[in-house]
Amino acid sequence: MTSPATTAESASNDGQLSLKRFSNLTLKLDTPKGRGVFSTVDIARGTVIDISPVLILEPEDKALESKQLYNYTYNWPYSEGETGKTTMRQAVILGLGSMFNHSNFAQNVGFTRDPSKLVIVYTALRDIKAGEELCISYGSRLAFRDADEDKYLSDPEEGNDLLSKIELDD
Ligand SMILES: C[S@@+](CC[C@H](N)C(=O)[O-])C[C@H]1O[C@@H](n2cnc3c(N)ncnc32)[C@H](O)[C@@H]1O
């Protein structure tokens, strides 16, 4: 079996990149987490869900002062031109990636940054059932109250059990 593409490896050498977007997705507009992406069909583990281009912001960009926009950015390793030194910048995701909500224990989508092609590749971490929300992990420091918090506080065993099944890739 061939391994799933987790980077934008399908890029050709002529300055083009094949984009991929899994088709059977829907954007629910009124979940407890705001808008959220759900699948209308089963998705097999390893399926590429989306390849989203990113926009790297300059550290002094005024856009970063907007908390609202900041919540849609990811840390991005940036190689400084002259020195080649890698520093962290913020990048806005210009694709479906901006719509994935966070889940601590039930994340089912992983992502891989591709700094050379300026894209993020989102991939199913496990088999996903029709009707499930597609969630990633934002990490442990959230800037908002997790809408799932009560669920896991009331049943910590559920969280432990689920966490042991998830492969974190970022
Ligand atoms: C990248 S956006 C995701 C899309 C967003 N739900 C929307 O409607 O545009 C990140 C924002 O979604 C919300 N969000 C994501 N995961 C959440 C969670 N687990 N609990 C509550 N809010 C969440 C927060 O408001 C967060 O700042």
TrEMBL record:
Ranges where the SET domain occurs: 23-139
SUPFAM superfamilies (UniProt xref): SET domain (SSF82199)
GO molecular function, one term: methyltransferase activity
Alphabetical GO biological process terms: methylation
Domain of life: Eukaryota
Keyword Transferase: yes
UniProtKB keywords: Methyltransferase, Transferase
Name of the featured protein: Protein methyltransferase
Source organism phylogeny: Eukaryota, Fungi, Dikarya, Ascomycota, Pezizomycotina
